[in-house]
Amino acid sequence: MKLSEARILYLARESLARIRDEGLAEISNFPMALRQAREMIAEWNEKGDEIDALVRRKITSIKRGIAEGSNEWNLLYRRYRDEELRRRGIQN
After folding, report:
1. Domain limits of the chain?
2. Nearest Cα to 73, choosing from 64, 83, 1?
3. pTM for the full model?
4. What is the DSSP annotation of 19-87?
5. pLDDT tens-place string over residues 7-52
């Protein structure tokens, strides 16, 4: 899923505000923290798009042709996605 810059900025701002408001962290330089949070979310989003494309190619390469949206396709998508996330060290 591709997030717009506006959505990324919104998520970064809301996350930092909640962290600050709930007393989980002291944010002395909010603009700098916002910039870093925005960059992290954008990077995470790009990696997600990359993994999605890879998983879709894997499923498409299966000879018998699995229809997108079917139970089997969904199961394979989750399995391949989890494998790729583990391989990249993003998920345990």
Report:
1. 5-87
2. 64
3. 0.65
4. HHHTTS---S-HHHHHHHHHHHHHHHHHHHHHHHHHHHHHHHTSTT---TTSHHHHHHHHHHHHHHHHH
5. 999 999 999 999 999 999 999 999 999 999 999 999 888 888 889 9
